[in-house]
Amino acid sequence: QLFGLVSVLDFRLLSFALTGLMILVLIRVSRDENGAFNWLLASQLFFLPIALPYYPLIYTDILALTLLYCAYHQFSLKHHGLTVLLAGLAVLIRQPSLVWLGLFLCVCFFEHLPIKSLKKISIHQFFHAIKKSWLYVAGIIGFLLYFFLAGGISQGAEEFHQVSINVTNVYFMVVVFWLVFWPLLLSRYQQVLSVLRQNKWIILLVVIG
């Protein structure tokens, strides 16, 4: 209604434009320490198995993912205000993006909290880390307030957005992670075998799963 879109083709063109926007963002984000464009990283992000199927579809995930790429870029530059703003917009579009806001919080918090020895951490150091990461805490609290005040994560289509635990998604994620990370595991198979020998309980969990 806002843009006067009425047909499926209109929405597909909008989705295509969002994909183009993501490509521009990848060109900006995918740069190494010297500022050179990293084709390999950009390709890995663009052909991400959990994103690639959505490009020709009318879906909000691509816009949320684009905002998360921007948020990560700002986070790497230590622009925490912009990071929270962009990640917050991603949460408004796709609520599961809240996980990334939590990840930014954890990284920022532990960057300012020495964890070599938890026994040596003082109250002053703990609150210093909280002070440095309070924007992320505020973002998460803001989402929780909305959730409890609104009585759910969406308005107008509550029957399609029920909070639940979907076990089938776990199996889907296992398959996706295998597709995404098997080249990395294959290139480091010696380290993987060493970890498995030292932690045989991991093998037991894999067999049980």
Report the sheet-strand fraction.
Answer: under 5%
Oligomer: single chain
Biggest sheet, in brief? none
Poorly predicted regions are none
The share of residues in helices is 55-70%
Distance between the termini: 47 Å
How many extended strands?
0
- Helix/strand structural class: mainly alpha
Q: What's the pLDDT, averaged over the residues?
A: 78
Total count of helical runs of at least 4 residues: 10
Q: What best-fitting shape do the alpha-carbon axes yield?
A: globular
Q: Using the CA coordinates, give the radius of gyration.
A: 20 Å
Succession of helices and strands? HHHHHHHHHH
Short description:
The protein has helices spanning 8-29, 39-46, 61-76, 80-93, 98-111, 123-132, 134-150, 167-187, 189-198, 200-208.
What does this structure look like?
Helix 1 (8-29) runs parallel beside helix 3 (61-76), helix 3 runs antiparallel to helix 4 (80-93) and helix 9 crosses helix 10. The protein has helices at residues 8-29, 39-46, 61-76, 80-93, 98-111, 123-132, 134-150, 167-187, 189-198, 200-208. The protein is mainly alpha-helical. Helices cover 67% and strands 0% of the residues.
Give the key terms:
single chain; mainly alpha; 10 helices; 209 residues; 0% strand
List the helices and strands and how they pair.
Blueprint: H1 8-29, H2 39-46, H3 61-76, H4 80-93, H5 98-111, H6 123-132, H7 134-150, H8 167-187, H9 189-198, H10 200-208
